[in-house]
Amino acid sequence: MYIPSNQLDEKIYCYDVNSLYPSVMINKLRARAISRQARDFAEAALEAEQQKLESGKSTTFVVLELQTKLTRARSVEIQPWPIITNHWEPLLPRRKHT
Prior knowledge:
Blueprint: E1 12-14, H1 17-54, H2 60-78, H3 81-85, E2 95-97
Helix pairs in contact: 1-2
């Protein structure tokens, strides 16, 4: 494997793609599961709050807030994979080459 060198003998960091692939796929599956679970929880909370509103024990303000949270959870769930992983990029493993 060719590793580029620097004329100033500075350490060069690069990713080993073969070792990254399993961890990236696991993170992808975790992100999908987490976003799906967040949407499920938001739907359940909204449904419970709507029932409370119908019985007169809640306000429309609370229901609208929960609808907003559900909309956010749904938008995160349908976002493409690169947008979700932007937060995790600093956490990906790096291999140091000298």
